Amino acid sequence: MAKSFYEAIEAMPGVSRKSDPYGLQLVRDGKTVVPLNEKWLDPDDQLREMDRKGFDMRLVSLTTPNLYIFPVKDQPEIGQRVNDETLDYCDKRIDRLRALASLPLGDPDAALNELDRVRGAKAFAGISMGSNVGGVPLSDPRFEPVWARIDELRIPVVEHPMHPVFNAELQDMNLSIMIGFMFDTQLMLVRLIMNGVFERYPNFPFLVAHTGAGLMDVLHRARGAHDRNPESSKKMKKPFVEYVKGLYFDTCMNDHDVLMSA
Fold first, then answer.
1. Fewer CB within 10 Å: C terminus or N terminus of the chain?
2. pTM of the model
3. What is the CA 107 to chain-centroid distance, rounded?
């Protein structure tokens, strides 16, 4: 993991360390910004864990809150620093690790520049993208040029859930991570599909976290979106489920039955 990412967060005003039943957290205003496990900063920890679990290859990326936690004006510089650190780390272990770069999506023009800067790196494998960008949906028109470039280059995107916009209501019992993450991934996918993003840009792999985050269980509620929703019917040329079939789901799931149902 990029040490500079955690250092940049810890340097933000009002951020401090706090230990709780879930481990060490970087917190601000009583809310967790990001967990911090010191062993993640050990350069050999990734390979030891991979060997222990029998993994041959791993993708290395930022976790939530990605670069979006930083002020928009700071995201490009911090993003370059974090991406360079991650790419260099993986490049030295190229037989076992590949890097997912993060884009400063608070500034879409800067995101395009960063994409062009990192995409030729030897360890580069794709983009890590949160399910929302500081509360802004990925289907927002401001991100259209980013999707167009990703589609043109056919660059894989790996989604990681973010805290939903109502995160303040989910601070008890770790609910933001336990339930909020899953809901935000579902909401992201529905918006991307119904706003026609995958219709306009069908040429890049999009991998969804947590085996679809329960999307399959609510799919029946969206089956009629193509026919019944006047706004989305103009943007979707196919039934909702056909776009779902074009997605990739990871296998980060601890329930065999749920994994098999996906």
1. C
2. 0.91
3. 17
